[in-house]
Records
---
Amino acid sequence: MEKMKVEILSRKTIKPSVPTPHHLRTFNLSVLDQDVLAIHYGSVVFFYPSDTSTSLSISQKSHSLKNSLSKILLHFYPLAGQVKDAVTIECNDQGACFIEAISGCQLKDFLTHPDPDRLKELVPSTDPKTIRSTLACILLVQLTSFACGGTAVAVSVSQKFADASSFCTFMQSWTAMSGREYGRVVMPKLVGASLLPPLDTLITSIPPPTTRNCKTKRFVFHESQIANLKAQVAAAMEQQHQQQHRVTNVEIVLAIILRCAAAASQSKHGTSRSRKSALLNVVNLRRRMVPPLPGNAIGNLIWKYAVMFQESDVELHQLVSKMKDEFTNVCNDKLKRIKSKKGYKDVRDSRKQIAQLLNGKLADMNTYTCTNLCSYPFHEMDFGWGKPVWLTSPSNFKNLIVLLDSKWGGIEAWVTLDEVEMAIFERDQELLAVASLNPSALINYSRM
């Protein structure tokens, strides 16, 4: 398939519909935001078929997006500001960057075999010129129209300000505003430093992830395959007399990916010495805080933790047990004291461990990171011309695993590995017995 050509037509700044009041011009971030790099963006691309029900033109859709974005930024005003330093956003109404682009290809041709390299052209946070011209922008949006009339709306939000739940809350409110369903607009609760004030000094310096010599592939795990693996894992855990907990779809998919990725790494290095591995995962703090936070609380309200394992314990039931044990430990121990002095020590210790795992200086160690977007209603995001036919969250950071709900059931996994390891991983017969390698994202859409 020839390279998709995307031409950027314009770059504009969208400011809040009403200036931010002076007393709200400084937004103080929490200790959980403090060491997150502002240049790291979380991105989701939503694909929409050509619209026959409302007959909106591309220019009308563009106007609706920009107009509704301006209105919703009134409430999500830090998104229109600039990151001033590690603990502060200057809410100066600089605005969000809105890019309009056009592609000469058909949407159905692109979605038949989604290509991670071609996806980059649809994402504003991966365009060097955009980044240079919008330095310190927290929110970037790109509307790309295809030859068939279909569209892609890519939204990139700095991870300095928002986790996956915050991103979803913003998208729910923006799409509701755009579709004029004002009763669905969710007002954000901007907690920031009022919840957990930042420390006087930076906790630790976490190195930026590498993208060099990496390859990204998409795998789709269908519901029936996941159900079979869950039954096998449950039976194995029962034989080992392990405490029974409900095994989740995400745990099963992560376990098989980690098992095969660890095997690929071991094969590449060709050593008889067992390599160690770590999975960096997160817990959503909102409903686990005491008292719990509302679902519309905005920020990096997550706890990052590491699950350690090695080649000798990568049976699926062992990996699932390790994930559950560490998750339970975080929820029952660390989260209960997070607001205390001991809790701040836990934050420091956790971030130091993560920095050590990510700096690449530990011998015979692989560190994998999971971005889990499952269970969020991203497939419901309707700007006023229908729900997306497909969506994805592209990234090419080494050893990153991105999980999303498949519209047709099951889970889509985007896995990025060292290119040599990926060549081994993508041919792993155990993996291919339960997952399809980059199948079509379409079933039957004639409007593309």
---
Amino acid sequence: MMGTSEGNTDRNVHMNGSSTQSTNGSVEEKVDEIRLLFGKSDGDPLRIVAVGAGAWGSVFAAMLQDAYGNFRDKVQIRIWRRAGRSVDRATAEHLFEVINSREDVLRRLLRRCAYLKYVEGRLGDRILYADEILKDGFCLNMIDTPLCPLKVVTNLQEAVWDADIVINGLPSTETRVVFEEISKYWKERITAPVIISLAKGIEAEVEPEPRIVTPTQMINRATGVLMENILYLGGPNIASEIYNKEYANARICGAEKWRKPLARFLRQPHFIVWDNGDLVTHEVMGGLKNVYAIGAGMVAALTNESATSKSVYFAHCTSEMIFITHLLAEEPERLAGPLLADTYVTLLKGRNAWYGQKLAKGEINLDMGDSIKGKGMIQGVSAVKAFYKLLSQSRLNIFHPNVNKDVAPVELCPILQKLYKILIARELSCEGILQALRDETMNDPRERIEIAQSYAIYRPSLLMN
């Protein structure tokens, strides 16, 4: 075969140095169950590849490696990332500090004869590359959280051509292009792989009619893999905390044939995975909360972390999200819990809130783009553009009782409007977000919810495949 599994060389040690419980019996049963579902015979390992090595994609691959890496004859776990991305001197120096602050990591590198290159990188005598440090368990977007060693492949064809399960760890903005390339390597396949997308972002189409395009739909279009073989996994999670075994939960959404056994396979004591059949709606909600997280970061920075101002913002942004879910879902109340939980953790510690804070403080600027060193892709930026474009369409007009006429849905979303003018049109500075909260003519957020609940605003075409 084109690749071999490296496995976890520290057989009974977690990444934080703590010993595991002896649960190999139950773990092996989970491996055997999923292998049976894929029709794997003895000597033919289940091949799992993560495509994309951002924080969540890398952590997801590392969790699988920690859980199943010892079963080398039964499971192969690899991760693909592009070659050639160099590590700058400041990051190399910080990485060296991280290594020397963690005795377990230091011992592991010494045992693998991999320590010297980090000394040379710190001194500037050698250039380190993102793919080579990932092999040692260091994700460029999450240097402070060392992972287990990973089998890294930089050739995309080698990584995916025989994969049984593909984990999409790419940003939504890169998903279409990369999977169009992947489709070239799958033309000779007899059976389609199963794809689990972790991406939280959307695109908008306005012709022939307004609709949302999600990463799973992008994958379907790019590869021809049926939607029943494509799933979405998301939840209120911070990647580094999950790898450090903070308790977390997630939902895997898609066809019942795959989601239920995969939920059991992915579940770990600290990472509880539920399953749900509503794929696209959950996926869209994962992108929606990123929009408002950017604004939350701005408000926090501009008001010196004022609890009152942040609560006012939260009231308005949640009412806008509730309004939007009524446009998208026939039973929006079923999404309230997952959406608010994901929004809450993103506002607390997510990269989109961080991005809003740094913009408002002037520590970064829009000309730097939405791919930020040490953080990766800020997916909320493209989501702002997509939701604004979509909800501005006159074909989606709804009745606004306060003005007694039909208006585009975006007219009922003042925060979304301000974020668009700040981030995309660049007509306002970050202080513009406070205008949306302090506008004396702004309606009570409760009224927006009442409009959503009282009028037939559901538009099923927005989420059509």
---
Amino acid sequence: MPKKSRSKNKSHSGVDKKGKILKTKRKTKDLDEIQGHMAADTARHLLNQPIDYDIPGAGQHYCLYCARYFIDDHNLQHHLKSKVHKKRVKDLKTEAYTLEEAERAAGKGQYRAPKPVHVPMDQNNLYKMETDFTDEIVLSENK
């Protein structure tokens, strides 16, 4: 009897979907999006969210710099000490890459280095700094 050969499954036809799934599975927000969230009003809204039971930790424990929710405060504090968080904070200390910078690097205009951005270690200080400053202005006006 002749040996039966296994027929190749042709339903996939050479497309490897696994690589694309793994690339987008752990996709985080880009640095320019996060720097947009670091504005005082947006930061205040993200760090003081109403209770939502569909989000981990009911949306009460959020890392603004990494755009991640945590189950409880202990896990958030552990994350704040982690290497991943510290690397993200270091990356956020430089100005986000923009289209104008790409055009300048390509020769359309004069290149300038990205400016440093102030990123406080405690994310709650982001919106408190600006509100304290405005409170001082209001107090000085009232005197």
